[in-house]
């Protein structure tokens, strides 16, 4: 009998499509609660506090870190900080919701320390060739930047054994349905 955890963490290498899969789940599985991050960056037009992000001042964020109130946090692009509030995740779980946290690998490792009983799912590309195609295909980076991204992707792919399950992102809907099944929910008929 497998226990169905309240918190499922979805992580994987850069450009694998974590955001696309979690957006699909948000749009099609309202029973899943997608964790909302706290951030120090200012709201963009149309963004609402508590819906898109919890907007915090640098001092407020410092207090959350000091108080151990974040399951994980990181500095992104050397500027703004993003983190997952323990209280919102706990409240959703207490409410009986299945919580999905879509995050990078460093964040997933922090959550594993904070909530070892959570379920950790690795989103993998269909193949290394497809991964290269996605990373290089954008044509926006120099050859050097592309090489750096591929080196990072190799390291990130090596983290797969740290996870409880692997879902291959060969098709967004199929991958989302598999993830929902792992969360103990019934995929919708399509």
Strands, total number: 9
**What is the CATH architecture descriptor?**
3-Layer(aba) Sandwich
For the biggest β-sheet, the strand order reads 2-7-1-8-9
Radius of gyration: 17 Å
Overall average pLDDT: 91
Report the biggest beta sheet as strand number plus sense, adding barrel if it closes: 5 strands, parallel
**What is the CATH superfamily label?**
P-loop containing nucleotide triphosphate hydrolases
CATH class: Alpha Beta
Structural class based on helices, strands and sheet pairing: alpha/beta
Q: Using the alpha-carbon principal axes, give the shape.
A: globular
Helix content: 25-40%
At the fold tier of CATH, the topology name is Rossmann fold
Q: Please state the oligomeric state of the protein chains shown.
A: single chain
Extract low-pLDDT stretches. none
Order of helices and strands: EHEEEHEEHEHEHHEH
Structure description:
The structure is a single chain. This protein is α/β, with parallel strands linked by helices. It has one domain: P-loop containing nucleotide triphosphate hydrolases (Rossmann fold, 3-Layer(aba) Sandwich). Helices cover 39% and strands 22% of the residues. The chain is built from 7 helices and 9 strands. The chain has helices at residues 18-28, 58-66, 86-94, 105-114, 128-136, 143-157, 172-182, and strands spanning 7-11, 32-34, 37-39, 54-55, 70-76, 80-85, 98-102, 119-124, 165-168. The strands form 2 sheets. Strands 2-7-1-8-9 form a 5-stranded parallel β-sheet, with helices on both faces. A 4-stranded mixed β-sheet has the order 4-3-6-5. β5 and β6 (80-85) form a beta hairpin. α1 (18-28) packs across α7 and α5 packs antiparallel against α6.
């Amino acid at each position: 009998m497998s226990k169905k955890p309240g918190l499922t963490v979805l992580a994987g290498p850069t450009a694998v499509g974590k955001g696309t899969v979690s957006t699909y789940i948000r749009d099609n599985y309202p029973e899943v609660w997608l964790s909302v991050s706290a951030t120090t960056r200012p709201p963009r037009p149309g963004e609402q506090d508590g819906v898109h992000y919890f907007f915090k001042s640098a001092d407020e964020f410092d207090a959350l870190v000091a108080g151990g109130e974040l399951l994980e946090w990181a500095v992104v692009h050397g500027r703004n900080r993003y983190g997952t509030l323990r209280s919102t995740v706990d409240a959703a779980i207490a409410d009986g919701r299945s919580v999905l946290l879509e995050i990078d690998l460093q964040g997933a490792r922090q959550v594993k320390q904070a909530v070892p009983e959570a379920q950790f799912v690795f989103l993998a590309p269909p193949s290394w060739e497809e991964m290269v195609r996605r990373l290089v295909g954008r044509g926006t980076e120099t050859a050097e930047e592309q090489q750096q991204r591929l080196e990072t992707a190799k390291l990130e792919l090596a983290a797969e054994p740290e996870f409880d399950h692997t879902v291959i992102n060969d098709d967004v809907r199929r991958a989302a349905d598999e993830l929902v099944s792992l969360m103990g929910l019934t995929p919708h008929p399509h």
